[in-house]
Every structure is written in C-alpha cells, then in structure tokens.
Amino acid sequence: MHRLFTHDALPFLKPENVKTKFYDEREIPSQLYVVLNQLFTISLSPNAEKLYYHGKVLELLGLYFSEKKTDTESCPFLNDQETVRKIKQAKEYILKHMDAPPSLKELAKIAGLNEYQLKVGFKEIYGNTVFGFLTNHKLDHSRVLLDSARFQVNQVAYQIGYNNPSHFISAFKKKFGITPKKYLMNKH
Predict the structure, then answer these.
(1) In degrees, to the nearest 5, what angle opens at C-alpha 14 toward C-alphas 9 and 19?
(2) pLDDT higher at 186 or 132
C-alpha cells in the first residue's frame, strides 16, 4: 500500500515511514463507518475479495483525507474555542435525537448560540448545513442498518426518523443512486 502513495500529499505513507505507527484520535465520521461495515460484511471469491478490499481501502483513505478542515479566517468566531465546543455539542445533540430533531431555533437555544452562529459555524466546521448533515448521517446509518440484514426498508425508514417510507426511499436514491430495495437485492 505504501508504494501507491509516495507523493507529498500523504507524507506518513512514504517508504521511510513504513514502520512508523500512525494514530489519530479524531471521531470517526459516519461515512467511514459505512465503508468499514461493508469491509466486514462482504462475502466474495478470493480474487474478487482482494480487489474489493483494495478499492474499499482507497475509498477509506479518500474519505479520511477529504474531510474539510475548519477555516477560521472566513469564520472569525470559530477562533473562540467555546463557540466551537457549543457547535460540536449541537452536532452531538442532533445525532442523539435524529429520530425527532429539534428546530434550528431550538437547537441554537440548547447549544447556547444564536441561530447565525450555529448555521455559519456548523457549515464551516462540518461542510454542510445542520439538517443537510443530519440527513447525510441518517442515510449513511440506514445503509449500516440495511447491511445488517435484520431490517426491512420500512423498518429502517421509521428507525432513522422518516414518517413516510417513500420519502426515505427517494432520499436514499438521491444520495446513493439506487433504491434501498435494489441495494438490498445487490447485497445477496
């Protein structure tokens, strides 16, 4: 794997660092969980498995290194660590309450921020609006639930907070380019 990445974009993967351990204590984003789950749930022939794993490792690296870094110059109040902490707290709150999330106004009040700080800061830190982030997380989580093969499409829709399964199906198709039912059929 080290031979694939000998350029400066990923310096810890240079040949001289082959025996150096790399640790990162960042929180694992939901899209990485989806790919990791796929690595452990797939059953393929040995030759196809090797190619599949190779592709998934590249996908993991791409997702990991494409994570948007905070730009505090364009959003000066992110220099305030207390504001950043409150925005992260707001993210954790909506993830814990994703089945019935609060309104933006309620979330700002819970986090102790005004709506502007929450909206702009959230977009700057996470690269998406509050509810765009939540929708992506829900849909990524839905794939994990579907991959578990323990739930039907309707059950997954209700479990991640959709009142109408057809809304879930259209959101899933919009994000992944396939309906949940076809996604399940392709898994088997």
Answers:
(1) 135
(2) 132
